[in-house]
Amino acid sequence: MLDRQDRIEKTLNALLPAAELAPARLHAAMRYAVLGGGKRVRPLLAYGAGELSGADPQRVDRAAAAVEMIHAYSLVHDDLPCMDDDVLRRGKPTVHLEFDEATALLVGDSLHSLAFQVISEQSMADNAQHQVEMIEFLARACGSRGMAGGQAIDLEATGKTLAVTELEFMHVHKTGALIRASVALGARCGDAMSQAQFKELDRFGKFIGLAFQVVDDVLDAQSSTATLGKTAGKDAKNNKPTYVSALGLEGARKFAAELRDDALRALDALPQNGGQLRPLADFIVLRRF
Ligand code: IPE
Ligand code: IPE
Ligand code: MG
Ligand code: MG
Ligand code: MG
């Protein structure tokens, strides 16, 4: 994991515009939002999936960087006063505080575009159709039927109680979709997987994507600001419906453990028994930050 975290850091550093390049303030803010923080779970999933499909690691670097750029953009916007109104992210002041709100909006816009540029400007797969599919997966995952749509549901649901099925719909969209796409993009960089295996891998992505947000809800309620690098207890303070408010801490933890079992079962049919995706699934569910 450490090797790959180092690899993604270097890749992101190389792909982001230099801070001196005009418009310098925007580029500095983009680099502030992306570099030097975060667990890099989405890139790690892309690398894990890429390995199973025999992908060229340099292609997976770009896929991993693209999903992390979309993720970082979603965090910058999620923290804005008009959304969750947060002051701390990855242990640093949020982008709109360190810079300003308009810059934070533009950081999101720019990272969104750069992500697609990065997976379009070079060959990403031996099969050109697979590269087009990657672009489509990512577009779907971050649009109104994916992350942005999930965020819209989240804002609408604030102050309300959601049924567990509605909560699942929200989480699968706001967080699950991009995680699922991270796995799919990594896999599509290589050609060694059958369509049936790809389907199982996608099932893994779906389960682990939902599990990720369930655990995020648990940690918000249970952990500390110092450990998380973001303000703990914000969901209750903002009156957000979460798996903790719906099922209680124990119930939410138990649900996350069930999703991990489902995710691991989906890996059984894959090359190398799922390889690094197995310990990654454990990390996602058992993590403390
Ligand atoms: C936090 O994501 C926001 C969610 C989608 C739950 P991460 O927990 O992956 O945040 P970083 O990237 O490690 O900071
Ligand atoms: C964030 O969910 C989901 C996206 C950024 C798309 P949260 O609002 O729970 O994320 P944190 O807890 O602020 O990281
Ligand atoms: Mg939010
Ligand atoms: Mg938030
Ligand atoms: Mg949260």
Characterize the overall form: globular
**Elements, N to C (H/E):** HHHHEEHHHHHHHHHH
Biggest sheet, strands in spatial order?
A: 1-2
Please tell me the total number of domains.
1
Distance between the termini: 16 Å
For the CA atoms, what is the radius of gyration? 18 Å
What does this structure look like?
- With 289 residues, the chain is mainly alpha-helical.
- It has a single domain, classed as Orthogonal Bundle (Farnesyl Diphosphate Synthase).
- The protein has 14 helices and two strands; from the N terminus they run ααααββαααααααααα.
- Bound molecules: 3-methylbut-3-enyl trihydrogen diphosphate (2 copies) and magnesium ion (MG) (3 copies).
- One magnesium ion binds next to loops.
Secondary structure layout:
Blueprint: H1 2-15, H2 24-34, H3 41-52, H4 57-78, E1 88-89, E2 92-93, H5 95-98, H6 101-120, H7 128-142, H8 147-157, H9 164-188, H10 195-222, H11 225-228, H12 234-237, H13 243-267, H14 277-286
Antiparallel strand pairs: 1-2
Helix pairs in contact: 1-4, 2-6, 3-4, 3-9, 4-6, 4-9, 7-9, 8-9, 9-10, 10-13, 10-14, 13-14
